[in-house]
């Protein structure tokens, strides 16, 4: 009968907390959005599922060995840990705090103590360590995205880079928003938190995850979920803003056909970009370096088998682990917080401001050039969210003029937005990292 | 608090400024590169370097194209 | 001439032990069974080859840095290690024992001492650490298996889950067998060993490896070899038992055609299963969580590229490393033991009992339902061994009635057996882990 | 020794018991889920969502099917 | 304005050293050779790109956490590190030296100190650690190469193994060359360096990287670049030597058609080779073991999905990481050295001597056999450089006799050369490792 | 210095020697193995075990071959 009691006392039903129930429901909601509403399913299916697994009571899948020891080890274990951490209290909260604040050597001592008592890292915690804490997964995704990106439209019309620059204003406006909420006493964000939240406005998943893992790992779950959700919502967020800021006549502007781009130009572009990064902003080198590397593999034409693998097997494998790892950050104690609401709110504002600035920049460029060479609808594509935002530009263009195919023209600012937000990420890592 | 706000503002000013400076330089560098390439390494003619164009013809029902497509597909397939 | 002598003294011929010769022959036997007899070749080819490599004299491929230092380092190294391990003896056996019994900090000190003298982990030892000791490889295989599994037949006839449950009796009967052999003084198994051996009866490779890596890592080699060998032998082990326990009339029972299962049901099933695991048995969460995740990727229809990768590139890569890592446990000193014979004997008994219980359960269910809705031949498929056991059911069904295609009906208990043994694994990890 | 045996026995009893309880609950949960799904989200008609059915027709010697098969194969191939 | 100054002071333009500029140009040269001249692009594209990234000023992508802390941490950090390393100086050069010379425990203390101050390993440093320092990447490439290798031509004419043996003389002659340069006071190579340089003459990339990572990690960049570059230059290096050492009549020798090789022979060959390695040279076991394993997967016919993955997804993934990791060793301070020139010079000599010895061996074998059964042109293929060297043999054969197809005959010594250099690698690791 | 040279020379002598000994043994072992295999496990006839030979016929324009090729390609494709 003891065993029966043990089973019951260790069961999920007995131990589940309201927070875990809520987070499991959030996980189910993400799965629903991904599967039925087609919200960025490649990421949100693993994130949602990982989120559910992270909240299975007593399984500790998202917890480190020490966290599991604190939770399950009882008073003696806590005593041992508090000795290893050089503190006087065996209170779980105090021990947890000391563990997170410990220097590397003390941290190791605590890990050893937990291991000696048979506690191990949860599966998702290991995935997170290997995939995200090391920085590897977002960079490899970026390499794969580089290998999938065609810079032709951008090279045919390099001025569209300005649209990609302008749309990054959403990032920095959001930083101000987060800082203001803190100054007003409504939320409590550090400047690092604010920067990581701002990057949601970059509309670029791997960049957001990379920056958040460096600047605000505790907020990573909410930031990644917000970034991918809003990217999926681009067809709903952007059109009203685009319509409000443009006239019917502007939306009807037809753009001249893009010139043919030679193979040599496409090969040279990632190299030029890499050298510019090397000269100006070394902190953006990991992100943009891997992006350029992927693109060079694509365009150089002599390593097709590597490029294929980067675009398929490798990016798929990394996506699975990245998604599950992000999901591991959706544990109740980290996600269920007023801050998460703030992040979700600020994120959508960031998207809106980025969209608006892209459109306005296009209008300014038309003014300055004294012509009508740019349809402002392609400005919104500068937020990135490749290729969704470009498709939105195309759709609105066709509504205004059924012969006006803007897709290729919008791909220029669209990929420029990827570069722009990686540059913005580099600046932030440099200044507040 | 004020300190945080001023940090945020300076991050915005320098961040946006840097993004613009960087992308402006990229516009020039790209334009310059394109000119150099067009001048010194002009493309003879845009050739279909890979078998994809042939593959794209797959929908056409002619038998010869079909054979070509097959060969290309199997060929590419084997490379994997 | 010194060099020539060195070469000779370091050569395999000079150093080979009878145990190593024997184990290399075992490795060759496994290769023969895999290649010529088609015994689960995907696993037994890497396991057999890994087993041969693990027994190459002096190469130390399956040994850790410290083990290599003990074996090759000479008296001075042993002295250094005994100091690091805080013992007084420099006897290799004593040092080895102290190394395996050391706590984490002492263990690290010994590793540092070995590294400082230029000794490193063997290649297979590293593979084992990354693939199996971390728990990752069996879980990823399970994810791939989930992505390959069609739960349609099970959903069409959920009662067949009972057959999958009954067949797990083989697992627990084997535990009793192992415990009895110890009580009788014939063998010397701990309760952990007994549990790990029992799981062979689950007829599921990754589950067996996962449980053995947690409960009895020293027996892992023998357990994995037994599990995969007996799975390959299912067409020989099961039929006599199935014939003995059924009448000709029973074997002729035709089953009603399975109803069509909608896509939505297939999507919901892994989620329902995951939630049940979360509520009842958190210890089964890693195994069944990854299994459900793989199956959800398969069925949801929006992440086909991830599902494809999980079923192909990823599972193949993991299989290579898993197989070689299991092979690393086939070293003479661990495998050549009376215990191995005990494991092989108990394993086949487990299969037999599982088969019998599945068949008998089907007969009981017919009795209780007062009808003849279930052909007892599909009960044996409840041991899992997907899809071999289901094919055996089909074959015997056709022998009795040439129009009686049981394959699809047997797939229900077959995949139920996978779930059943993962649940049994969770219970064991919970109680004796 | 007796202790070991009693541990083994209790593992058997609780283990088998739990497996049955779990799978019984799964039978009910699955049945309940199927009912809910059939009630609230009935399938319009089972559509062939993927090109495999077309591919399965590959053995048929007609030329049109061949083209369809090719296209499907090449298409799927490219996705990889 | 502070921030602006910070940006400028941290920018690449401000910090770039002439050495870094030079190394970036080397990286661009490698990319040019790979993309335009088709020099082993699968490796040289990642190596060249990795080399550029490794030399991005201030980014520290190829540096460890401690190296980054030394470079960027300022006086206080240096003080902390010198305390951790138990030295009295806070001079960067002294600290760096002490860090590299530290034993494992002290090394860990320094790493902890760097981590505590927020310094982390660069991305490429991590890649190097996982891919090369662990030994995994070259071994997995070798497994893939094994899975791509057809030993049929070798089995049809096993005597061609002697050609593969003779061509390894290039390796050992180069060792003597390196040793002589040191004895003459021109260079400063240890015997380990000399051995690692010699292996360039093996004309086999993964073997060279594996040996260099064990014997001379500092020279790894130059050795790998030399090995792959000369392999690409085989069509230019070999023909003059081959023509000089053969008569027109010899070049016209037609060889008898190769006999058919049964599947069983092909399956048995990797096993025979593995057992021979096990008996004679355990130090070659990792390299040749993985090679034989790949080849067995290929030939056994029952694990085609594993063989496919080993030849495609897995080898491609590993190649990407291997190339970037090798590139990480192209940092200015390690590559820009008189030694690199010595390595490049010795490498080409090694290729030349290997080629000559292969050709001469073929002539000797003809003499000893008293016939004309071997066309000496296939001797040069014994250096390996698969399949380039065999193609060169074929080309020269066709020049002399337009009906003389030597390709298949040359594949025998070609793959024999792979085995030969792996054996030579094992001997070197045994004697100087 | 002299020591280094002598180390190099002995490495050369023993290295080359060992390479030759090893490959000579491999020649004999391989020959022996081939004889054993030919004696005890002769191949009935060299069968085309895999679909590749059929695939190689892809260039031939006949319709039947085409179908065979397709089937083989799709089959192999699916295995991936
Ligand atoms: Na962006
Ligand atoms: Na089972
Ligand atoms: Na060679």
From TrEMBL, chains A, C, E:
The chain crosses the membrane at residues 12-35, 127-149, 161-187, 207-233, 267-289, 309-328, 340-362, 405-429. Keywords: Cell membrane, Ion transport, Membrane, Sodium, Sodium transport, Translocase, Transmembrane, Transmembrane helix, Transport. Its cofactor is Na(+). GO terms for cellular component: plasma membrane. It catalyses: oxaloacetate + 2 Na(+)(in) + H(+) = pyruvate + 2 Na(+)(out) + CO2. Pfam families: OAD_beta. Coiled coil: none annotated. It is a multi-pass membrane protein. One of its GO terms (molecular function) is decarboxylation-driven active transmembrane transporter activity. It is found in: Cell membrane. It comes from the Bacteria. One of its GO terms (biological process) is sodium ion transport. The keyword Transmembrane applies. Its main location: membrane. It is an enzyme of class 7 (translocase). Its EC number is 7.2.4.2. Belongs to the GcdB/MmdB/OadB family. Heterotrimer of an alpha, a beta and a gamma subunit. Catalyzes the decarboxylation of oxaloacetate coupled to Na(+) translocation. This is Oxaloacetate decarboxylase beta chain. It comes from Amphritea opalescens.
UniProtKB/TrEMBL annotation, chains B, D, F:
Belongs to the OadG family. Its cofactor is Na(+). It is an enzyme of class 7 (translocase). It catalyses: oxaloacetate + 2 Na(+)(in) + H(+) = pyruvate + 2 Na(+)(out) + CO2. The chain crosses the membrane at residues 12-32. This is Probable oxaloacetate decarboxylase gamma chain. It comes from the Bacteria. Its EC number is 7.2.4.2. It is a single-pass membrane protein. GO terms for cellular component: plasma membrane. InterPro entries: Na_pump_deCOase, OadG. Its main location: membrane. Heterotrimer of an alpha, a beta and a gamma subunit. GO terms for molecular function: decarboxylation-driven active transmembrane transporter activity; oxaloacetate decarboxylase activity; sodium ion transmembrane transporter activity. Keywords: Cell membrane, Ion transport, Membrane, Sodium, Sodium transport, Translocase, Transmembrane, Transmembrane helix, Transport. Catalyzes the decarboxylation of oxaloacetate coupled to Na(+) translocation. It is found in: Cell membrane. GO terms for biological process: sodium ion export across plasma membrane.
